[in-house]
Design goal:
The protein contains seven helices and ten strands. It has about 220 residues and is of the alpha+beta class. The chain has a domain of about 150 residues: HesB-like domain (Hypothetical Protein Aq_1857, Chain: A, Sandwich), CATH 2.60.300.12. β3 and β4 form a beta hairpin. It is globular, with a radius of gyration of 45 Å. InterPro entries: ATAP_core_dom, HesB-like_dom_sf. Belongs to the HesB/IscA family.
Length: about 220
Amino acid sequence: MAMRAARRCGGTFRTTHDTLPLSLRSFSSDAIPKPSVSSIGTVRRKGAQTRHHPPQPIQRFTFATTTPLQKTIYLTEPRLDDDGKEMRIEITPRAAKRLTEIIKTSNDPSFALRVQVQSGGCHGFQYNTTNASIKSLSDLEEDESVFYFAEDDALVGADNAAKEELLRGPKVVLDEPSLIAVQGSKVDYTQELIGSKFEVVDNPLAENSCGCGSSFSLKL
């Protein structure tokens, strides 16, 4: 009946299975083994070598930094040492703040802090800080230098007229022998239980200082 039905449709009806060679008709698609999901990742080509890639080093970035602006400036002509370098001190923000407070409360813009190095003390030299009055640069002795704490960057490199105006702000005056002995140090303002005071700290030329820090010997 099936063959007659096929002929009535106009030809011989063949299935895909009928077109296969006899040697393959005994196999079905269900008989072909399928790799399991777990085994797929472990199949390697025979003789193939596994390549190991060394870990890449962590890339590090460096950022350029600029030298911080020197806040303490000369109001007088800079003085040079024997090597031709400027002899400088630094006024700390804490000391500048206290100097500004004194100027305002006393209503005396000519007020300045004088720092001197004198012979004495248990180690040969000692610091001495006293009040001074400087109304004009012309009031200074020939060997004296004035340092000013510049809060405004624009004040650096000010002309003489501007420097006269800056004398109304926080300033420190030193004579040349004292400046030679304290160059590179800082003028700070410290507050302790026993009192508060201006003092010279971090002097690179001082050694064998006493416990209170007021007496020291100089490096030769």
